[in-house]
């Protein structure tokens, strides 16, 4: 493990860029908790929480590829600056609505959250589009897994930070904190990208000579399409967890405990990610990992109401940690596939499609989770996540075991009749 981490730490500029990109994403793990408390206190309904959060996720999904294409063709720093400010303004408007408008007017906030989602700073997709420019091919999946692991580490901090602010002040204060972290983090990462010389997308000779290829949708490639659907269902499964645990915590009058369980889920992901990095990123994200995620979510569903009303907290904690160990390896493998399948000059766009896939998965799951929570309770909502994880595992099985990257073909061609393959374990 330490050899792999040391090798990556010696890559020039990687430590600073990775650290800043992770800090710029900490708001993403804090915001679901903050918004859940803000909206639930305003409307008294988890269905409204799910719909508003889902509208924000839809906005993120719609804008992902567009932001990527703009960053590929223009300045990534400018995109980060503009979206950071717009995102903070959108969250401020949501807080004002919750504070001043009657609860019956909460559907108006759907428009606000959708527009806010459009402005999410694309830190994740821009950072992931840069990683192949920093490391050799054999280190790629290890770096993507490290990226996912690092995010899971900060994801342990985000929910705890949000619940602490909620406990000490209110849900509105927690959302304000998220707005400040999002805008400030995006600007800092944008400055770092410019200083490192990565403000513009990587260009290749084939890209300059083949303009028609640039106009084709990446989704026309059947392997890329299937690979992008894997994180759709994976993220749907993961997003069934947070809101369900928040609902369990509120029903037990233990919001702090809910934050701790969410953090433990992220801690398990960090542990699983470090184990995967120690293997150089290899042999992760396959059937064993996918099966663990499915089994863990099914077990968690059986431990929550209404299936079980008296599960000790330590039992929930153990299952949550074990289930989380499958997260970072699965996400790292998904990101590595996308990075391998995308042409270098279109990687920001490709990771925009990845962002669309993941946020669409969240948009699908959040309203469903809210509805199931109101109708049946946490066990049903987590159970729906287990079904989504099972579909994701089936898609992984459908992908070719190895793939040849387009940009490494001897003739530099992009043969749409052949199926490019990315390493899928």
TrEMBL record:
Residues 413-425 have a biased composition (Acidic residues). Residues 402-412 have a biased composition (Basic and acidic residues). Keywords: Membrane, Transmembrane, Transmembrane helix. It comes from the Bacteria. One of its GO terms (molecular function) is transmembrane transporter activity. SUPFAM superfamilies: MFS general substrate transporter. The chain crosses the membrane at residues 20-40, 46-66, 78-99, 105-123, 144-166, 172-193, 223-246, 258-277, 289-307, 313-331, 351-373, 379-399. Signal peptide: none annotated. Coiled coil: none annotated. Residues 402-425 are annotated as: Disordered. This is MFS transporter. It comes from Streptomyces botrytidirepellens.
């Amino acid at each position: 493990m330490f050899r792999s981490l040391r090798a990556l730490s010696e890559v020039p500029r990687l430590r600073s860029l990775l650290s800043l990109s992770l800090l710029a994403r900490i708001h993403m793990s804090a915001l679901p908790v903050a918004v859940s408390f803000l909206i639930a206190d305003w409307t008294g309904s988890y269905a409204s929480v799910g719909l508003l959060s889902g509208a924000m996720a839809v906005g993120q999904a719609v804008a992902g590829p567009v932001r990527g294409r703009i960053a590929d063709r223009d300045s990534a720093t400018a995109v980060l600056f503009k979206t950071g400010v717009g995102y903070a303004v959108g969250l401020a408007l949501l807080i004002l609505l919750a504070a001043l408008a009657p609860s019956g007017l909460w559907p108006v906030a759907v428009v606000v959250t959708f527009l806010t989602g459009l402005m999410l700073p694309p830190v994740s997709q821009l950072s992931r589009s840069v990683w192949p420019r920093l490391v050799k091919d054999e280190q790629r999946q290890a770096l993507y897994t490290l990226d996912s692991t690092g995010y899971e580490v900060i994801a342990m901090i985000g929910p705890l930070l949000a619940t602490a602010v909620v406990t000490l002040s209110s849900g509105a204060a927690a959302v304000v904190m998220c707005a400040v972290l999002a805008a400030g983090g995006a600007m800092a990462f944008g400055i770092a990208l410019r200083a490192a010389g990565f403000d513009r997308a990587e260009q290749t000779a084939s890209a300059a000579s083949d303009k028609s290829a640039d106009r084709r949708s990446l989704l026309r490639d059947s392997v890329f399409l299937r690979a992008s659907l894997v994180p759709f269902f994976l993220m749907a499964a993961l997003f069934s967890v947070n809101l369900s645990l928040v609902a369990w915590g509120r029903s037990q009058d233990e919001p702090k405990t809910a934050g701790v369980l969410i953090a433990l889920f992220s801690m398990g992901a960090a542990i699983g990610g470090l184990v995967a990095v120690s293997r150089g990123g290899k042999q992760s994200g396959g059937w064993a990992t996918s099966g663990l995620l499915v089994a863990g979510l099914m077990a968690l569903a059986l431990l929550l109401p209404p299936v079980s009303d008296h599960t000790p907290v330590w039992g929930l904690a153990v299952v949550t940690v074990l289930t989380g160990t499958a997260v970072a390896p699965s996400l790292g493998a998904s990101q590595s596939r996308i990075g391998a399948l995308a042409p270098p000059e279109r990687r920001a766009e490709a990771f925009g499609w990845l962002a669309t896939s993941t946020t669409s998965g969240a948009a699908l799951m959040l309203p469903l989770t809210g509805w199931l929570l109101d109708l049946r309770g946490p066990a049903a909502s987590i159970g729906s996540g287990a079904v989504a994880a099972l579909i994701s595992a089936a898609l992984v099985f459908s992908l070719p075991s190895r793939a040849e990257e387009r940009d490494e073909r001897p003739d530099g061609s992009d043969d749409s009749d052949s199926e490019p393959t990315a390493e899928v374990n």
